[in-house]
Amino acid sequence: MSALPATGAALLALPGLALAAGAEPGRVESAMTGLPGGGMLLQLTLGLVAVLALAVGLSWLLRRYALPRGGSIRVIGGLPLGSRERLLLVEVDETRLLLGVTASQIQTLHVFAPATVQPISPPSFRIAPTLSSAEPSHDTPNA
Question: What is the pTM of this model?
Answer without folding.
Answer: 0.37
